Each structure stands twice: as structure tokens, then as C-alpha cells.
What we know:
Elements: E1 3-6, E2 19-20, E3 24-27, H1 33-43, E4 46-49, H2 58-61, E5 63-64, E6 68-71, H3 77-84, E7 90-93, H4 101-104, E8 105-107, E9 112-114, H5 120-130, E10 134-136, H6 145-148, E11 149-151, E12 156-158, H7 164-174, E13 178-180, E14 194-196, E15 201-204, H8 209-219
Parallel strand pairs: 1-15, 3-4, 6-7, 9-10, 12-13
Antiparallel strand pairs: 2-3, 5-6, 8-9, 11-12, 14-15
Amino acid sequence: MGVYLSGMFGSACIGVYVLAIDKLVLTPRQMPKHKAGQMGEWLEAEVVQTNVGGSILLGSLLCANSNGIVAPHYIKEEEIRAIKAVSDINIVAMESRRTAYGNLVLANDKGALASPELTRRELEAVSNALDVEVVQGTIAGLPYVGSLATATNKGVLTHPKIRRDELELLQSVLKVPVDVGTVNGGIPYIATGLVANSHGAVAGFATTGREMAVIGQTFGVL
């Protein structure tokens, strides 16, 4: 357990490319195998290297918890098969023009907070896929809740300008403590530079020691 630093494709925004839940880490096929394996060791999870509709932006396009994965409509069958070869997790391709569900939904195994922009039909599909209650809300007055915070079954780290009412809703929905912070030297869009599960956390290489300490305390991985 611990907080580690890494990057991908020369960028510190690793959360854009990688998705982690407690038993799985999904990385782009283009990520070097040794680096993907290291990510799996750090997070104590099985690694699957695949893309989403050919895209390397897995963290932005996918939302997941231990019960399921929400994907955009254009995910390919061979990409689904790559995940299914390792896990029997439920994978749902959304029937919507929206694609970046990683930016629009924040979830753990206890609940999910979704962007106010999602339709009732989309909310029902997300709830069925993840097998949790889904509530709509904002963070810091912004609808892109999935990019503004990172959630695990131990805690949530969120944008420092989250309002009190938003924090209370987030805590009640995900049923874990909520803390505020930044990544990569002051970036408030937490999920762009952080990948975490119940076993560990990997932050972008520009993340400071102070930020790492907050991450470790929030997710209980120090």
C-alpha cells in the first residue's frame, strides 16, 4: 500500500488514460507492458491492456466500480472481450451520444454521483450497470463530477472549492469520508492526475509531497 508517482506518454495526467477498481486496472494497449505490470503491483489488481473505440483515454471514457463498467456506445467487441477474458464484470455500452462517462459519473461500490446533464434513461442505465443508487449533483458548481474527484471504497478526494451542500451530498451518496486537495502541483481536477483503489494510489509525477500526503490520508493507503 502506498502513494506512487508516474506518468504516461510524457504526461502527468495519468487519470485520463488509466482506470482502476479494486480488482482491475485498465490501461491503454500502447502503455509499455512493464509499466502496466508495475501499475498492477502498486494497486494490487489484475491488469487489462485495451482501448475504448481505439482511444487511449480510458480514464475519461469509462466509469466503473466492482460491479460494472459503463462505456460509450462505440466500444468495440474485441475490447470488451479483452476485459471479459480476465473478469466477468458487467460491461454496458451506453446508447447515447455522450461518450466521456469517466468525466460525468463518480462512483464506488456504495453509490454514484452523476452529472445533472444526464437524462433519466442514462441514469437508469448507469445504476443498472454499477448496481448502486445514482444521484445527480455538482462539485464546485460544475457538472463534470467524474473529473473533479476520485473515489474509492475508503474515501473521496475532491476539488477544493466544493460547496458544503455538495460535500454533504457526496458523502451521503458514496458513504465514505470526503476530503479536498489537488494533484500535479495545484491542479483541482483530481481525476485527471490520480488513479486509486482500496489498495493504493498512483498520482501524476508533478504531484508534490504535500499533495501525496493528503492523497494517502484520504484513501487510507499510507
